[in-house]
Amino acid sequence: MARKNAIIDAALVVVGEVGIAGLSMRVVAAQAGIPLAAVGYYFTGKDDLINAAFERHVQRETARVTRAITRMGDSPGPADLADRLTDFVVTGLTAARHQLLAEYEFTIEAVRRPVLAEASAAWQAILGAQLQAVVESLGSPRPKADARLILSVLAGLEIDHLSTPVEVAQAQMISDVLHRLLSVLALTWTPGQQDGRNGS
Questions:
Q1: Which residues mediate DNA binding here (predicted)?
Q2: How many CA atoms lie within 13 A of 44 on its CB side?
């Protein structure tokens, strides 16, 4: 199992560095530092490896989102959520950059691969549900719509900064945008009141 995990991790690195087009069993074997035959033992081909790599990516990113949200304080508010989301985006663009690059490679590839598209849609639903629960707890009368808006802004910030290094100024700009977004949304929120509507 350890060797199989190493192969999947290597595949994610390759996808993040050279894209899915550059992924091959041989390249992954070299990245993992194992014989090519070992990759063939665990995976039937490139498609199988891509699906496994995406599944691993979903597991990691879901855990990363959960950690970001659960770090909110005892009395969280819109500003606290903005801080957590800023950390999430900046970390994705720096320490977890190859994971983020891989994510958008998978997103594009999902257009051509129905299985990947289904998995991607399910993952987006999980992320949306997590964020929806948070904004609902903060008093949003339309948590589903607000969560969609926030996720769209997060994706835009990630894409805008994928090709350039994120320095202090860029991180501050990301923070400013998210604080502005959450402060505007919060104008319609009623803290402490959850009316049960999911706001489509």
A1: 24-43
A2: 3
And the tokens for 46? 């490139």
| 193: helix, strand or coil | coil
- Of 199, 194, 109, the closest CA to residue 150 belongs to 199
- The model's pLDDT over 6-50, given as tens digits with 9 standing for 90+, comes to 999 999 999 999 999 999 999 999 999 999 999 999 999 999 999
Helix (H), strand (E) counts: the chain: 9, 0
Q: What confidence category does residue 93 fall into, taking pLDDT thresholds of 50, 70 and 90?
A: very high
Residue 2 dihedral angles phi and psi, to the nearest 5°:
-65, -40
Cα 32 versus chain centre, distance = 24
User: Which residue in 162, 57, 20 sits closest to 101, CA to CA?
Assistant: 162
Q: Do 62 and 122 contact (CB within 8 A), yes or no?
A: no
Residues ≥6 apart with Cβ < 8 Å to 82:
175, 178, 179, 181, 182, 183
Expressed in angstroms, the distance from the first to the final Cα of the chain is: 42
List alpha helices for the chain, DSSP H: 2-18, 25-32, 36-42, 46-70, 78-93, 97-109, 114-137, 143-161, 168-186
Owner of token pair 């039937």: 44
Q: What share of the chain is helix, strand, coil (3-state, %, to 5)?
A: 75, 0, 25
Instruction: Give all domains of the chain, ordered by start, each with its CATH number.
Output: 46-187 (1.10.357.10)
